[in-house]
Specification:
7-stranded mixed beta sheet, 11 helices, 6-stranded parallel beta sheet, binds zinc ion, 2 domains, Quinone Oxidoreductase, Chain A, domain 1, Rossmann fold, globular
Length: 363
């Protein structure tokens, strides 16, 4: 029978979110119900609430989560009841043109649950990124569940489901940072600091963090930045060149997604270097660059969708590295809160006071 649980709902553009009773159906074919243990608060949740993603209100927010599978539908073979999983929004379909080319990290047709979760009056909810995990239970496609080592606390492991994976993946997957390379990361919030940590993991010798907030530059140092540049008072391109023998970095990562910042990343890179955009721009933004500079500098300009991750490959690997003390996953958790703390967490995030607030559920 369907479950009635509490969840965080955004009912209309710009309206504060509310904690409401939601109805979660029994899992149908290929679906799973997950008892959520923890779910991080991400900028994308706030964008949904502000109507910045689409107008499919009401939304069930939350998408960076870990929990335990409590029921599975017909035909589910990749997980079973009791499995500890991190939820993902790239449930690889196996059939789209990316998957058929052997590049499932770009899958264009991720699986989501076919059934809808609803309010008690039957109104269908749109789950954020096809997940909706600010809820005691959520219904997902079984492919959205990636089993990881249960020794990792849910507060930390859940963050791999979005922001931390995006940042780490921008460095190790999209940017393909190699041992001994030089890296600059622009923007040192959760995603940017994860890119710093990813560059360190990959063995970068110089990691330059750029931000306009000294507090964030301090965070970046904790995650492995070897140098910091406050771009309010210093030209970051000149500073980065000065720190790299006059040449610029091998990999420049824009974790802000603003034309001005992208331009800095573009010019802060050595000849034949890579520029990676992982920060998400708004639809009205435009970038103008001299074509001769694009040609003359060589290398590549790439964007990084979800860190070009393959959840089945990357989530268990990063959890294992965390458990071995080689990746500081839990350092991204600034504070924990309850379901009723999401609005306050949005405000703290907006002011840049936290890397991540994480909603935890009482057992
Ligand atoms: Zn696919
Ligand atoms: Zn997110």
């Amino acid at each position: 029978m369907p479950y009635e649980v509490r969840g965080v709902v955004a009912r209309g553009k710009g309206q504060p979110v509310t904690v409401e009773t939601i109805v979660v159906p029994d899992p149908g074919p290929g679906e799973a119900v997950v008892d959520v243990q923890a779910c991080g608060v991400c900028h994308t949740d706030l964008h949904y609430r502000e109507g910045g993603i689409n107008d499919d209100f009401p939304f069930l927010l939350g998408h960076e989560a870990a929990g335990v599978v409590s029921a599975v539908g017909e035909g589910v073979t990749n997980v079973e009841v009791g499995d500890y999983v991190v939820l993902n929004w790239r449930a690889v379909c196996g059939q789209c043109r990316a998957c058929l080319k052997g590049e499932p990290q770009y899958c264009f047709d991720t699986h989501n649950a076919a059934q809808k979760m609803t309010l008690t009056d039957g109104t269908e909810l749109s789950p954020a990124l096809g997940i909706g995990a600010f809820a005691e239970k959520t219904l997902v496609h079984s492919g959205q569940c990636t089993k990881v080592d249960a020794a990792a606390p849910a507060t930390a492991a859940g963050l791999l489901g979005c922001g931390v994976m995006a940042g780490v993946g921008a460095a190790i997957n999209t940017g393909a940072v190699r041992r001994g390379e030089t890296v600059a990361v622009f923007g040192c919030g959760g995603v940017g600091d994860a890119a710093v940590a990813g560059a360190k993991l990959a063995g970068a010798s110089t990691i330059i963090a750029v931000d306009i907030d000294d507090r964030k530059l301090e965070w970046a140092k904790q995650f492995g930045a070897t140098h910091t540049v406050n771009s309010t008072d210093t030209d970051p391109v000149e500073a980065i060149k000065a720190l790299t023998g006059g040449f610029g970095v091998d990999v420049a990562i824009d974790a802000v997604g603003h034309p001005k910042v992208f331009e800095q990343a573009f010019y802060a890179r050595d000849l034949a270097g890579r520029v990676v955009m992982v920060g998400v721009p708004t639809p009205d933004m435009e970038i103008t660059l001299p074509a001769i500079e694009i040609f003359g500098r060589g290398g590549s300009i790439k964007s990084s969708w979800y860190g070009d991750c393959l959840p089945s490959r990357d989530f268990p690997m990063l959890v294992d590295l965390y458990l071995q003390g080689r990746f500081p996953l839990e350092d991204f958790v600034s504070e924990t809160t309850g379901l009723d703390g999401v609005e306050e967490a949005f405000a703290k995030m907006h002011h840049g006071d936290v890397l991540r607030s994480v909603v935890v559920f009482e057992k």
